[in-house]
């Protein structure tokens, strides 16, 4: 099989045994040793709280935690005071929905989403819409599974105050032209939030070049730990936003008469944060930067092309999404439920995801109850695709 040269980094990932094809990176990525080491060191050697301690260990940990914030900022082209550490993309979107949207939206205002959004970029907006009296519109997809920007341009009105779109679809792998989408949104005066969960691990992201207003992603899909993620927000927007959660760490001064809040991003980080998670995320950023996001993108798009070409030769396979998808391929095997596909593949040590992928509205558009999804990471190579294809041929024989 020709195409992508493997990046040859699988040995960095102790939880990937030889002979196991892990093709579920879109759900969560495996962790390289430097990330595991950074987390272990954080707990075993340098652990202390941040921002409060008067002792040296805590001061050092605070420096490390804030250095992680600066690293994230540089990684995505933002400023450190625009980086809010959250639990993950889900919390980042909920934060904007509960804070910015609750403050800004009025009855009659409109929110624009797309048909391919993850539930975490749908449900928070439904709740915000219910609370504020705003309405939601949904941009359709092109036949090959991209958010249709022409349709979006035709739909946008001055009533639209917010657009929220996935940079890369977690089901189809289709890549949004985030800059073009941002220009369209700004053209009617709307703000735009980009859900970068599947983009940040798969292609270089620069929020300044995109020009968007909010950008969210999760650490655990970027080879980092669970429980830590990022909301990037334009400084002037964050500064004007009311708190999301309240309590310790996010205040300026508390009294029973009146409480004032800290500036952003501290205002949005109530409670003791996931200190070591931030260190793990910083190590993950170092790791992917050592390989290079351009190389990772090239590698994963080549794997997608190989997988699509090989799966496309099997008569019973129906492929979803575009040929130039970023690292993700969804498909169906005629007459076989995706869960059965996943189970048979697992017998051959090939791990894929089968289900609705938290994108039930997209399943309705594709007119399927679920899809089988193979998604790639830095550790995958052509051998994994050969195993996938052999597994699907076996599925076809069994159900043929
Ligand atoms: N958006 C997209 C596109 C995703 O793929 C995911 C995770 N599957 C999320 C949002 C939610 O991420 P998390 O569960 O890490 O908060």
Observed structural traits:
400 residues; Aspartate Aminotransferase, domain 1; globular; 2 domains; alpha/beta; 40% helix; binds 4'-deoxy-4'-aminopyridoxal-5'-phosphate; Aspartate Aminotransferase, domain 2; 4-stranded antiparallel β-sheet; 7-stranded mixed β-sheet
Task: Describe the fold and architecture.
The chain has 400 residues and is an alpha/beta fold. It has two domains: 10-30 and 292-399, Aspartate Aminotransferase, domain 1 (Alpha-Beta Complex), CATH 3.90.1150.10; 35-289, Aspartate Aminotransferase, domain 2 (3-Layer(aba) Sandwich). Helices cover 40% and strands 16% of the residues. The protein contains 13 helices and 15 strands. The strands form four sheets. It has a seven-stranded mixed beta sheet, with helices on both faces. It has a four-stranded antiparallel beta sheet with strand order 11-12-15-14, with helices on one face. Helix 1 packs antiparallel against helix 9 (275-291), helix 2 (56-76) crosses helix 9 (275-291) and helix 10 runs parallel beside helix 13 (382-399). The model has no long low-confidence stretch (mean pLDDT 96). 4'-deoxy-4'-aminopyridoxal-5'-phosphate binds at residues 88-90, 118, 120-121, 166, 170, 195, 197-198, 218, 220, 358. It comes from Sphingomonas aracearum. GO terms for molecular function: cysteine desulfurase activity; pyridoxal phosphate binding. Pfam families: Aminotran_5 (PF00266). Catalyzes the removal of elemental sulfur and selenium atoms from L-cysteine, L-cystine, L-selenocysteine, and L-selenocystine to produce L-alanine. Residues 22-388 form the Aminotransferase class V domain.
